[in-house]
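Lab meeting minutes (informal)
Scribe: AK
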Amino acid sequence: MKIINTTDSNFNEEFENILERAKTDIKGVSSIVTNIIDDIVQNGNSAIKEHILKFDKWEVKSDSDLEISVDEMKKAYDNMDEKLKESLHTAYNRIKAYHEKQLPKSWIDFEKNGTILGQKVSAVDRAGLYIPGGKAAYPSSLLMNAIPAIVAGVEEIVVCTPTPNDEINELLLAACHICGITKAFKVGGASAIAAMAYGTETIPKVDVITGPGNIFVATAKKLVFGEVHIDMIAGPSEIGILADASANPKYLAIDLLSQAEHDEMASSIMITTCDKVAELTSIEVDRYLETLSRREIAKKSIDERGVIIVSSDMNEALKLMNEIAPEHLEVMTNNAFELLPKIKHAGAIFLGKNTPEPIGDYIAGPNHTLPTGSTAKFYSPLNVENFMKKSSIISFSQEAIDELGEACALLADTEGLTAHAESVRVRLEK
């Protein structure tokens, strides 16, 4: 695995390349995706059927073939290994408990002059969840996207997932059953995003779309934003690790590879203050690579987008990592909690040697749908509020409008809005 040092003459250039890690050619696929969206808008299910035949290689003979039945979900659940079933339920309960703590509250405040101000929080009517199904199927993504919607109180949840060759992952079906999903469709890619954003004869129009996907999915989400709300524009998975001399190179190596095996475009970046740890970790990465079922994918990711940076001290390491703003950040140091106040930008922060990133992916409770490509500087993890909205509550008494009305009217006058001003002043007439 590549090792660079902050003292290298070309370090700044190397670091700029790291910051560019997630740049994807959205412009390059925008015209393709726009055509797909337009086709769905104009032709609905017939367009979906053509897209499925082209991309997923199976023929949809009727509209009902697009649907995944609740019977299929229950059958998959009933046939599941009991230990695996128990694990999924454990994950469900922990994720649900965590997200319940995020619920925002409605509130009302009363002022002395009779003014009543407040905020009403309510769920969207319908949420659309995109669950990947290409190179790997992710039942955990279903849990992570469905549960916050359930906790928020969304009345109807719509799931779309690609099914190459009309094959559905059994674990995904079982996860749908656990979450009580009743509307799920065998549609993937930009077609699914367009169908959920605009609606078709079979797939309902939703209010918000969440879930990760490839560049076509990400581009489609960007293009339909405004017609619906979205969670974020997510790119390839990534991990950052802060390590000192106390860190175990075996732990570091396999944790770096835990992201590399996702995708050839995934990024694995470690910053350490110790040359020896850097060298030993690089050796362990090579050793572990030979044991992985997805070795070719992981190797390409590590070779092209993996790097170990040796910094002069931890303050420099923290500064660099905050600039990277990784999706996942592991802190593998003696004083992990002491560093927490200095970490400004990361999707999820994993503290201590016994907290590998996969714990967050599956079982800890916090959401694993996270901002990538440095967008943790302004995006948050998927959460309950992605499925909720707020309404302001305003009520003025006569005393209140008498007290504040003229000031309001004057501001309206200043902006040249005569009717605005008069609508207030007419209520001030005695």
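Next up, CB showed the second protein from the same session:
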Amino acid sequence: MVRVRRVADESIAAELGIVPGSEILSVNGREVGDFLDWEFLTAEDTFVVTVRLPDGDVVEFDIERPEGMQMGIELEPPTVRRCANKCEFCFVEGLPQGLRRNLYIRDDDYRLSFAYGNFATLSNLKPRDVARILEYRLSPLYVSVHATPWEARKVLLNNPRAPDILAQLQELAAGGIQFHAQMVVVPGLNDGDVLEQTFQDLWALGDAVLTVAIVPVGTTQFSHLYTGKPMDEPTARLLLAQTERWQARALAERGERWVLGSDELYLLANVPLPGDEMYGDFPQIENGVGAVTYLRRRVREGVAELPRLDGRRIGIVTGSAMASMMPDLVAQLHAQTGAHFEVIPIVNSLFGPTVTTAGLLVGADIHRALTDRHDLDLALIPAETLNDDGRFLDDRTFIEVRESLPMPVFPSYDFVDVLAYEGTGVVTA
């Protein structure tokens, strides 16, 4: 059973009398347990829905839906499957107290992997889950592989009961399911020979493995569980060299690079980031793979459309990792607009100096960096620092921070998105 959260006006559901609080019991006689059941069982244009209305009446509706028309039902969100692993490098384990409550939820849910691109370890899959993935063709999935050698993976997940990920992937691949994989690489645990074996195992799965992301382990000052070695420059260079050898093989044999290093790996190795050709359609950009390159492309493609902003003083807030990559972007923006841009790198006071990405900056840090900057006409902050409710990781709201600062402040994904409107005077917060 799933419960209806919202019904769209003038929709099929509204016409039938289905209202918020109604319970969807079954479709074509099959029980509806979550949003996946609902979406897949109602994919056809004709079906039978059994509903328990808020007054307790159970009603059966014969639906004949016009092609392309939606039922108009929004379901209450499902209960998220929690992670049973205790990975030393888990970012949630490295969080301080007092942040947004949902940040402490360690999800490991294949449904969210399919629906939203969340990475899952698949360590909690039951036979019925596998059957469901195959029946519903939940592809592609995003899988935290970390290592295919079983014993090494048990250590990485800190879970002696973790199943054999290779056997799981082989079963799903045989059923036509594809994956995007990631490995968080911990020096001394899953680099070197373990990583090489993992590459070989994933390669043997053929077209089932779409991409593999190599992400160096990262910790915060609160990562109390982590006992491994840090990822230093020499180790990052060795890891990148191993990655590039497999890229060369994949390019020669399959016409694609297949394995991709995260931006953080290149930064730690002190190696220039690749160009657009490395990433294709940027399939793992949300995992920090190609994000900087994509930003450069968006600026390159959009800068010609920017208005003149001569004399304007604009601050660009970013994390310390991005600061060294900003001069070229700023030069392009200045040449087109005439504005004076200042890059304002911020050391993350909440997570510590080892966390350098712009998207993990918090409201307090942004406020501290801008509070005395009366010389700025405008400030841009990374849009990735905010959730859909307009809150930073430290639970401060954007409105709260913005109203405390002496200049207009706008969240921006690529600078161009805000500056294109700034010259028209119609930018709104």
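CB comment: The mean pLDDT is 91.
No objections, moving on.
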